[in-house]
Amino acid sequence: MSFTNEQMERYSRHIILKDVGVKGQKKLLQSKVLIIGTGGLGAPAAMYLAAAGIGTIGLVDSDAVELSNLQRQIIHLTKDVGKPKVLSAKETINEMNPDVDVVTYQEWVNAANVKDIIKDRDYDFIIDGTDNFPAKFLINDACVLTKKPFSHAGIIRFQGQTMTYVPGKGPCYRCIFQSPPPPDKVPTCKQAGVLGVMGGIIGTIQATEAIKYILGIGDLLMGYLLTYDALKMEFRKIKLPSNQKCQVCGENPTIKELMDYEQPVCDLKF
Amino acid sequence: MLIKVNGKDLLLEKEVTVKQLLEMQKVEMQDYVTVQINDELVDRADFEVLTVKEGDTVEFLYFMGGGDR
Lengths: 270, 69
Description:
The structure holds two protein chains of two kinds. Chain A is α/β, with parallel strands linked by helices. Chain A has helices at residues 5-10, 12-15, 21-29, 42-52, 85-96, 114-120, 133-145, 173-177, 189-192, 197-215, 265-268, and strands at 32-36, 56-60, 101-105, 125-128, 150-156, 159-165, 224-229, 234-239.
């Protein structure tokens, strides 16, 4: 694979970095990242990954764009209201960077389809940009079982958190959080609100982790939970232990097949 | 005694259990918070018996959804 003059110019600020260079940019162009959820977190993550020249970006979302999404889901425009989110996101990415092949999956992930979606293009890295715990645990378990690295994140009000899982190298989401909270116990963004920029900050960190993983540079948020409080303007990096008793990645795992947790009806649709 | 809770110093008059500390710190949804002391996960079943000691570093980790939609 050789670069066109246009690509040399487009990626020049990457290529000049000694940790990226021509070799690293080629790696990015040959890499495949799956983004589950094209909302607050997935939108900015997808845009930066597209701009960075990730060769294949998979987008999973069953929803259509709503006016109330536009306060934070910056990949969708006012004209896109009513359009499937994956389609709207694909159009934006295509306009941003023609080098990117966008694969769309207009569906919700569930125990029956998530592994097939991950295997569809044998994605190198997965970004969890979902808004609910059943999906977060499902993605975690699917990544552990298929040995895929992924970035977890969550945002609410003025707060965010993110961690990176790399198979066999550090704790998974379930090591720390064990099982989903009951449906009505932990508020959702719709109930509690979220500052629009939270997805930008945390989703962009998720994109950064994907790029670092693909390039094999720096230190990932592996074994760490990064928390961000926008009101205090405070980032904290909390060391996480591996949990040998983890139900999915521990020494004697009890979860060997994926399962669907019940999802609250109020969360399924507005 | 001095402990650290989520990165901040906290002065306590005496040793307290994890559950008491959760209450003192007014942690909401105590049944769904993950507690770590000195980089070790605390079993939920031990919240009422395990005490926090001088110099301990305590982290409360919260569920956070958000993202899509």
